[in-house]
Amino acid sequence: GEDVEQSLFLSVREGDSSVINCTYTDSSSTYLYWYKQEPGAGLQLLTYIFSNMDMKQDQRLTVLLNKKDKHLSLRIADTQTGDSAIYFCAESVNTDKLIFGTGTRLQVFP
Amino acid sequence: GAGVSQTPSNKVTEKGKYVELRCDPISGHTALYWYRQSLGQGPEFLIYFQGTGAADDSGLPNDRFFAVRPEGSVSTLKIQRTERGDSAVYLCASSLTGGKNTIYFGEGSWLTVV
What we know:
The structure holds 2 protein chains of 2 kinds.
Chain A: E1 4-6, E2 9-13, E3 18-24, E4 31-37, E5 43-50, E6 55-58, E7 61-66, E8 71-76, E9 85-92, E10 98-100, E11 104-109
Parallel strand pairs in A: 2-11
Antiparallel strand pairs in A: 1-3, 3-8, 4-5, 4-9, 6-7, 7-8, 9-10, 9-11
Chain B: E1 5-7, E2 10-13, E3 19-24, E4 31-37, E5 44-50, E6 53-56, E7 65-68, E8 75-79, E9 88-95, E10 104-105, E11 109-113
Parallel strand pairs in B: 2-11
Antiparallel strand pairs in B: 1-3, 3-8, 4-5, 4-9, 5-6, 7-8, 9-10, 9-11
């Protein structure tokens, strides 16, 4: 079945890079996504990658996809306190629904 | 509207009562989704509408849950005979036509069943 797993917590110093990891089980995933959730706010789409790509870069964000190992990562360069939030990895197989991981809480300290 | 709007933002109800949660998607979006997020978990898919019809309702947990979208815009999620385990944030989302189009989420309706 479909399953997406993430580590629960990550703590980094302001200015350092953050790397949030995700593993998924469904090899037929077509798109993989990263969402950000801040307290009291809705889910915000940060970036996504199509399954035939290895890497995507968007300003401070870099997404790496290892399809063989079913591993997805999100790197945030120059992490700021405003990046503190919960980050969700999600996969879509037939694109009409998303399967989310449990989320990684990123804490950025000065 | 500018974004996906959900009402109420918070709802406390007694066990056994009936609840309706409303979602107003972004104007012109034909695809609408409902997700449920329990504390400490990621969102779980409930149902997907394309226009007025439910294209995929495989995530509805049981027959106490029902959703409608009669005119292809506003949607209502209905929960009968609520149980304490139904307590969660119910998230609505919409996208232009579904498929690979970006999905925009609302801020959710926090339901607490006491």
